[in-house]
């Protein structure tokens, strides 16, 4: 038997676990969460019958077609948002905002086609501080939050930091300033 089947005659129960540390890194708390199903890379629909168990860091729901990409969002802030505008015609990396920042900043970029993306934060001396992204992305508009913490989860000191974006479109580096 070959292939992947994503539709069932009856609803099946789906249980997903999430890492609360990932939510914290993105500046999102473990409360007031919602689950959305990405439809076509540009739009999503809320899974209205999703039930969050905050203490177990899990979400459950029933569906007859459970396959797809699910995104956990907060009413406070989206950890990684995908813009709803049409597919961009060119690549861009925006200056982080706010800049200077304390304690969080947003880094936005656009991709005209699917691409493998790396986004890392470096000290002014060139030491890697934080790896924010290391994965494939569909074409679209994206924004990610950096919370001023390093890979170990510790807050970094005030100063100038660099963010380096790598994709098939090249490598770009920009400066940002963390003030405390």
Descriptors for this entry?
180 residues; mainly beta; Immunoglobulin-like; 48% strand
Which superfamily, in CATH terms, is the homologous superfamily of the largest domain?
Macroglobulin (MG2) domain
CATH hierarchy: architecture of the largest domain:
Sandwich
Tally the helices: what do you get? 1
Beta-strand portion reads: over 45%
CATH topology of the largest domain: Immunoglobulin-like
Q: What is the percent of helical residues?
A: under 10%
If strands are numbered along the chain, what order do they take across the biggest sheet?
Answer: 7-12-9-8
The chain-level structural class is mainly beta
**Secondary-structure element pattern, one letter each:** EHEEEEEEEEEEEEE
Radius of gyration (CA) equals: 18 Å
The level-1 CATH class of the largest domain: Mainly Beta
What overall geometry do the principal axes of the alpha carbons give?
globular
């Amino acid at each position: 038997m070959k292939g992947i089947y994503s539709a069932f005659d009856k609803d099946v129960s789906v249980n997903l676990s999430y890492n609360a540390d990932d939510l914290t890194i993105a500046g999102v708390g473990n409360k007031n969460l919602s689950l959305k199903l990405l439809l076509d890379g540009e739009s999503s629909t809320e899974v209205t019958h999703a039930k969050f168990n905050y203490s177990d860091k899990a979400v459950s729901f029933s569906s007859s077609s459970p396959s797809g990409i699910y995104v956990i969002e907060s009413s406070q802030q989206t950890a990684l948002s995908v813009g709803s505008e049409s597919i961009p015609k060119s690549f861009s990396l925006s200056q982080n905002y706010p800049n200077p920042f304390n304690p969080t900043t947003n880094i936005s970029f656009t991709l005209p086609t699917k691409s493998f993306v790396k986004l890392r934060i470096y000290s002014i001396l060139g030491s890697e501080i934080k790896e924010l992204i290391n994965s494939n992305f569909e074409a679209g508009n994206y924004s990610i939050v950096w919370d001023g913490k390093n890979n170990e989860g510790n807050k970094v000191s005030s100063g100038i930091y660099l963010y380096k974006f790598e994709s098939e479109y090249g490598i770009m580096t920009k400066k940002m300033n963390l003030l405390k």
